[in-house]
């Protein structure tokens, strides 16, 4: 296999050479934003939506991305081509860049922009067939009016605390409640519950990131004629749901079969979950920005 190449500030360099300074405020303070994107069969799924979210997150923290969205599109496609990847997970990072040791973001002269493409499966393959067991974390989602979950920032400590709780409980993922105790999301994925053929996911204001996979599932569920609502719900609603599943770019669509020791429905991935998973897999293979349509030549 040829060497992995990583885009960093205009150059494609090897993994060993893809390094940033210890004075980067992304490293010192988590000051920056990021995106996770997937390419399926050479189609980059909802690239435009991911870039809108990246640039909106950057705008929110007064960070100027030094490329236009058109240029960033080309960088993403070129990174895939350089690595000869058609099925890949892409990580885009825009950090505040090198500054001094104070918090002051105005001491940073130029953001660092990084694009990494590689193969990634968040959960082991067999869990997509069997479904996940999860727990509810004691750590609560940060309040939307303190730090909006819509800003996909490099500060993921809230989510990492949840992932630690999952690890300590010996399960692959955990649920986060918001400060009022309503279900918000997983550490890096959105949650859906299904009860009597009604599909429900928490609204953004509860404290969930409005995931791009989540939005695709909402569309698919409506196209299929299901009652699809964004509504507030509790842990109890999760326990008594017929089906539960998680969505995310890294997680894709994955059934949840046990929550805090309670079996969900039949204890197996549900019929509607599997139907939506199939519809999602069909959608992603031909819905996206085609790598081959890029204006750049393959080097
Ligand atoms: N919530 C959080 C906290 C996340 O980090 C992610 C992953 N980006 C998601 C939800 C799912 O969002 P998406 O479907 O856009 O990947």
Helix coverage percent: 25-40%
Give the radius of gyration.
19 Å
Given as residue ranges, the uncertain stretches (5+ residues, pLDDT < 50) are 295-299
Shape-level CATH architecture of the largest domain? Alpha-Beta Barrel
What is the CATH fold-level name of the largest domain? D-amino Acid Aminotransferase, Chain A, domain 2
Assembly form of the protein:
single chain
Number of helical elements: 8
Mean pLDDT: 94
Bound molecule types: 4'-deoxy-4'-aminopyridoxal-5'-phosphate
Largest sheet: 9 strands, mixed
CATH H-level homologous superfamily name of the largest domain = D-amino Acid Aminotransferase, subunit A, domain 2
Q: Any idea what the shape is?
A: globular
CATH class descriptor of the largest domain? Alpha Beta
In terms of structural class, how would the helical and strand content be classed?
alpha+beta
Cα-to-Cα separation, first versus last residue: 17 Å
The domain count comes to 2
Order of helices and strands: EEHEEHHEEHEHEEEEHEHEEEHE
Number of strands: 16
- Beta-strand percentage range: 25-35%
Cofactor: pyridoxal 5'-phosphate
Keywords: Amino-acid biosynthesis, Aminotransferase, Branched-chain amino acid biosynthesis, Pyridoxal phosphate, Transferase
Pfam families: Aminotran_4
InterPro entries: Aminotrans_IV, Aminotrans_IV_CS, Aminotransferase-like, B_amino_transI, BCAT-like_C, BCAT-like_N, Class-IV_PLP-Dep_Aminotrnsfr
């Amino acid at each position: 296999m040829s060497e992995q190449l990583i885009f960093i500030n205009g150059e494609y360099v090897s993994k060993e050479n893809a390094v940033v300074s210890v004075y980067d405020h992304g490293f010192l303070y988590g000051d920056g934003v990021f995106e996770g994107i997937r390419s399926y069969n050479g189609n980059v799924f909802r690239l435009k939506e991911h870039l809108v979210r990246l640039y909106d997150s950057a705008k929110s923290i007064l960070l100027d991305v030094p490329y236009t969205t058109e240029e960033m599109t080309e960088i993403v496609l070129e990174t895939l081509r350089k690595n000869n990847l058609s099925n890949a997970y892409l990580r885009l990072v825009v950090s505040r860049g090198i500054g001094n040791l104070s918090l002051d973001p105005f001491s940073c002269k130029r953001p660092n922009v990084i694009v990494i493409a590689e193969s990634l499966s968040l959960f082991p393959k067999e869990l997509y067939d069997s479904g996940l067991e999860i727990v509810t974390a004691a750590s609560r989602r940060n309040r939307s009016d303190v730090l909006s979950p819509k800003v996909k920032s490099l500060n993921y400590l809230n989510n990492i605390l949840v992932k630690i709780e999952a690890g300590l409980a010996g399960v692959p993922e955990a649920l986060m409640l918001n400060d009022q105790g309503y279900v918000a999301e997983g550490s890096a994925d959105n949650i859906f519950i299904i009860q009597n053929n009604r599909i429900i996911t928490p609204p953004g204001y509860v404290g969930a990131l409005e995931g791009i996979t989540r939005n695709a599932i909402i569309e698919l569920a409506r196209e299929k004629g299901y009652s699809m609502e964004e509504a507030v719900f509790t842990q109890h609603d999760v326990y008594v749901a017929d089906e539960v599943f998680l969505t995310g770019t890294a997680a894709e669509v994955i059934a949840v079969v046990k929550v805090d020791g309670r079996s969900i429905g039949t204890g197996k991935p549900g019929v509607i979950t599997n139907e939506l998973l199939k519809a999602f897999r069909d959608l992603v293979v031909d819905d996206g920005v085609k790598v081959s349509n890029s204006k750049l030549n393959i080097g």
